[in-house]
């Protein structure tokens, strides 16, 4: 059982002892720290916070604790109840709120939950702000409101509808073309809020919808991370029903995976590649993803005359580099689409609408679209080390060894070779080096990873 505190919020498993798990006491403590930070930063007004949750079983309990803690601090709350992460992000500036909290553990199993914290733009907090909140929580330096100054809760249950309408207003989303294409789409909503939002969006786009696990009970029918090994049923359903494609989201709807009409995975790395291909064709410009994302985005960006840049891993880092480079689209290779025309946050609803417009315009099958992109294959591994080893020293040795290659040390060590790359990142919570590789074939990516693991072990034996 675990409680993990980071600059982007806290996540942990439900039950157990305070400070070891995400218990009611921990939920109250961190909600109070966030509320105190907001009040410190907005001393002349009563702050408002938008709160929403995915459908996981513990969500309602954690939401009541969080909202009432904020009320106790004298903060007003806009309660979205069942929602999605991008919906809360959209709602914060629309409500002119000072912040937002999403109660979701993303792709983690049902025993997990988390508080994800937003600023007044509806974006994840900077590292500096997150560190300040952790310090407030550590000192428990809270000052609750008197009885006449308590906050108020306002319920607004229509924000998924509002979010969908904002997606439909985007100039690059063409609902008429999508409707004319007469698509049939199978949806796996993993029994969370994607089961509400995705079918609703598709129906507004004139799509025939086949629903699988779209009842938001929070009882996830399979591992909720949208990876191939967890998606056998939806892959089979697409083929059985003759659907044009399958759509899969994680519990809070910020990760998006597609399944081709033949029941094969489109590839989570290629969700962003395809959406970027469409956006760049209409609005040429720059793109950003993180250092562990596929080289395919760079290739597509350069094909359209733009510049690709890679950020440190983490949505807040991707967003900052997108702003710095005026990127027209960006995101993460795990199926996270960030389209700033609507907001700076990973948004599956935006991704679905852009992808379907692209398909409708090109009159292509999903499998044909996938074959049109350069093929890269990834291998993701880790090497466990003993706690006394200096991980930074090991990474420095690797950097020295490959000093003749193109190297980035923005986040760990990434080595770009002509036909493949390797990215090494240390864990902040355990003595582990994560090893990501990409090459033209799966066997080559695996071989590169094995070679790097051997080299790390050689260095370990020397230090």
Strands, helices and their partners?
Elements lengths: L2 E4 L2 E5 L10 H18 L6 E6 L5 H14 L3 E7 L2 H10 L4 E5 L8 E7 L8 H13 L13 E3 L3 H10 L6 H7 L2 E5 L5 H11 L3 E5 L19 H10 L3 E5 L6 E4 L8 H15 L3 E5 L5 H8 L4 E4 L3 H11 L1 E6 L3 E3 L9 H15 L3 H6 L5 E8 L6 H11 L4 E3 L4 E4 L4 E6 L5 E8 L2 H21 L1
Biggest sheet features? 7 strands, mixed
Average per-residue pLDDT, rounded, comes to 95
Let me know the CATH homologous superfamily of the largest domain.
Alpha-D-Glucose-1,6-Bisphosphate, subunit A, domain 3
What global shape is seen?
globular
CATH architectural label of the largest domain: 3-Layer(aba) Sandwich
Please report which band the strand proportion falls in: under 5%, 5-15%, 15-25%, 25-35%, 35-45% or over 45%: 15-25%
Strand order of the largest sheet: 1-2-6-5-3-4-7
Task: Sum this structure up briefly.
This protein is an alpha/beta fold and 463 residues long.
Would you mind describing this structure in some detail?
The chain has 463 residues and is an alpha/beta fold. The chain has three domains: 3-157, Alpha-D-Glucose-1,6-Bisphosphate, subunit A, domain 3 (Alpha-D-Glucose-1,6-Bisphosphate, Chain A, domain 3), CATH 3.40.120; 163-371, 3-Layer(aba) Sandwich (Alpha-D-Glucose-1,6-Bisphosphate, Chain A, domain 3), CATH 3.40.120; 377-462, TATA-Binding Protein (2-Layer Sandwich). It contains 15 helices and 20 strands. Strand 18 (413-416) and strand 19 (421-426) form a beta hairpin. Helix 1 packs across helix 4 and helix 9 runs parallel beside helix 10 (296-303).
